[in-house]
Amino acid sequence: MAIATINPATGETLKTFDAFSADEIERRLRRAVDAFVVNRRRSFADRAQRMKRAGELLEARKSEYGRVMTLEMGKPVKAAVAEVEKCARVCAYYAENAERFLADEHVQTDAQESFIRYQPLGPVLAVMPWNFPFWQVFRFVAPALMAGNVGLLKHASNVPQSALAIEEVMRDAGYDQGEMQTLLIGAELVSKILQDERVKAATLTGSEPAGASVASTAAKVIKKSVLELGGSDPFVVMPSADLEEAVTIAVKARVVNNGQSCIAAKRFIVHESIAGEFETRFVRAMESLKVGDPLDESTDLGPLAMPQIVEDLDEQVRASVAAGARLLTGGHRLGERGNFYAPTVLADIPESAPAYAQETFGPVASLFRVKDADDAIRLANATLFGLGASVWTRDRKEADRFIDRIESGQVFVNAMVASDPRVPFGGVKHSGFGRELGVHGIREFVNIKTIWIAKM
Ligand code: NAP
Is 315 a catalytic residue? Predict the structure, then answer.
């Protein structure tokens, strides 16, 4: 895949980049090793001062960086600016809390003294997707660097300017020894770099095939890996829910990031007593979305990031209709140029249809009717994925059943699923393993070292 910025709203190639040469990659690997020596010796206060500065710079440059993202992958510019703000928050969060999260933990044993110490591992390779070009990276970078590690970023090939901007902001914040370097390389080099002795671990956010490839290489060379993969999140609505709010948030949860979010709600599982009303309101709300130029602040839905995504999505919709699904609205491309797709709603979806349980990466919603909570839980779990789930009910006991029985990394009740620096984020089943964010995220890439002092 070419390393280039191609505006998804117009199809115009804005900038192309040469992939790094073998010599340049080698230089950066050496630099990462040297930077690790520096960063691991820094005090938490020193690291925090730099990380806090990174947050301030992000805040100051949010319009500029937001525009870069919109031009590279098409998200509405308002959301892009909000994404940079969120990155600033994660920097501030780990600047403030890392020392506490990684402080020695004393444990009562037979020894005179015993405790756990958390120590950094070294250079970590981060393979990242284009859908949240800044956020995906910062939720790795902030905890990793605060723990004393250093990062090597292999970003998606369609967001090179975002990748370079991230390197720039960390350098400007005082991480100027190469603590966070971008590698402009294609996916084919990931395995080779991960096998290099100097790279100590890997994290990948992206698709299942890419995750499987990185995890198997990591396993082969006995290195730690964290995977954040896809999702087909259920959005369950029960009779006691506030229907109006549920519909409003359902639409938002489906079309967030032009529908290209791992935790976007994809399957809407509604109790049969309210399903008709939900369907009518949901379709109306999807049809009233403003689709268009992502640089226009009033746009709700921009283009999909790449032509291939439109192809794949359209194929999923067609195959679902061919299998017997009912098309309530949409189901076609929009406009003469750019990667636009109409907000689409499918209902009565048979098990054999792609929209039943696969991930649909775009503005396509699958509606289901269920007769009770057990039926809803069965359907919610009828997918290989297990990332997030949103449940709408005002019955606390009923909510507890969903919380207990839905197979996912997070369950949100009466809210859409979202990531937040303070709580762990990740999935089960084919959605991956390991966690980012919160205290758990910063402890993924550390040596959890047991110290046992029998006597002195
Ligand atoms: P992708 O094709 O897997 O790409 C992600 C990254 O992996 C890119 O940097 C890509 O590089 C690289 N890559 C691709 N194939 C690889 C391979 N065989 N070995 C090593 N690296 C490889 O995924 P995407 O289409 O960009 O992203 C969409 C997917 O990411 C969706 O499934 C979405 O749900 C998931 N996602 C998950 C989360 C989460 O937190 N769980 C968050 C966001 C997105 P190139 O660009 O050079 O190919």
Answer: no
